Amino acid sequence: MGAVTVEALRGVTFDIQPGDYISIMGPSGCGKSTMLNLLGCLDRPSSGHYFLGNEDVSQMDDDALSAVRGARLGFVFQSYNLIQQLTVVENIEIPLYYQDRPEHESRAQACKLAARVGLEHRLDHKPFELSGGQQQRVAIARALVNDPLVILADEPTGNLDSKSGKEILALFDELHQQGKTLILVTHDQKVADRSFRAIRLCDGQIESDIRR
Questions:
Q1: What is the pLDDT averaged over residues 141-168?
Q2: Is the pLDDT of residue 206 over 80?
Q3: CA 78/CA 94 separation, integer angstroms
Q4: CA nearest 137: which of 107, 158, 115?
Q5: How many domains does the chain have?
């Protein structure tokens, strides 16, 4: 049997402005994950272009894309993706390790970010000693540690109870007010309602793009 080509996204064109707070929504299989992977430089488009700042990252090789991810992008995942053997402060430091930062600078930056998300008293705890909401705060601090151009979040409240979810969304609101560019993939309309721009995908195409 021959290979079947599946077009996850088709003819998608849009701009993201500095300071945007965007939610990406749509039914399962509509292309949300592919969109996030492209924006996060985890995948390259099979055609077309993606400019991050002034650089066409769609033409970069794997090493160059890895450098872009480490320097310009921050990721927050539904399952936190923390390393269980490392402490809170060590998890936050990870992106700086790949930039060959001096150890004392990395530790100072990680401690500063831990305090920013309210975990200054949990620096030496391991992820399994934290609640889900606290683990997601560690993930957010890790996403911020390299001062990224864009923070990308994939269902960031999906594994949290309602109280913890509200606390994480309040933290995203605060980051947006401080000028950060946020892009959230979510199925939850209440989460999307916190954003200032909603992009809805359907069958790999943009069905609507609404600024509030």
A1: 93
A2: yes
A3: 18
A4: 115
A5: 1
Tell me how crowded residue 207 is: count the other CB atoms within 10 A of its CB. 12
Can you give the CATH number for the domain in which 169 is found?
3.40.50.300
Is-contact 148 179, C-beta < 8 A?
Answer: no
Q: What is the pLDDT of residue 124?
A: 97
pLDDT in tens, 60-100: 999 999 889 988 999 999 899 999 999 999 999 999 887 87
**How many CB atoms are located within 10 Å of the residue 142 CB?**
26
pLDDT, tens only, 25-57 = 998 888 898 899 999 999 888 888 999 988 899
**Residue 6 confidence (pLDDT) above 80:** no
Enclosing domain of residue 90:
21-45+57-211
